[in-house]
Amino acid sequence: MSDSLEINQWLKSVLTAVLKHPALALPAIIQAKLLVPNNWIKKYPFLPLPDKKWIRFRMETAYGDPNYIPDHDEIAQFLSWTKVR
User: Fold this and answer.
1) How many structural domains does the chain have?
2) pLDDT score, position 7
3) What distance lies between CA 72 and its chain's CA centroid?
4) Over pLDDT 70: what percentage of the chain?
5) I need a labelling partner for 84 at 20 to 30 A (CA). Which of 23, 32, 44, 60 fits?
6) Is residue 10 within 8 Å of 52, Cβ to Cβ?
7) Per-residue pLDDT at 66
8) For 37-75, what is each residue's pLDDT tens digit?
9) Residue 3 has pLDDT above 80, yes or no
């Protein structure tokens, strides 16, 4: 899967989750801040994106597939969980 297509699918899932559940906007911003490396501006594609290797590892440990992209309901569930912690 191409990187840009994968990024678009992730962004679509996150944005859909936040649009359906506006109360999850703040947890989404907090998670983005926690997951995005500090030096993101120095690396191509110059976007605040989490490390691909880490995301692939997390998807493999959670879903058994490093290429898995959670749907908006799974993203919403994760963001709700982060609110409770």
Assistant:
1) 1
2) 81
3) 10
4) 95
5) 60
6) no
7) 93
8) 888 888 887 888 888 898 899 999 999 999 999 999 999
9) no
Looking up tokens 């898995």, which residue turns up? 68
- For the chain, the maximum distance between any two Cα atoms, rounded to a whole number of angstroms, is 34
Enclosing domain of residue 59: 3-84
> Per the structure block, which two tokens stand in for 13?
């899932």
Alpha carbon of residue 66 to chain centroid: 14
Contact 79, 31 (CB under 8 A): yes
3-state secondary structure the chain: CCHHHHHHHHHHHHHHHHHHCHHHHHHHHHHHHHHCCCCHHHCCCCCCCCCHHHHHHHHHHHHCCCCCCCCHHHHHHHHHHHHHC
pLDDT of residue 29: 92
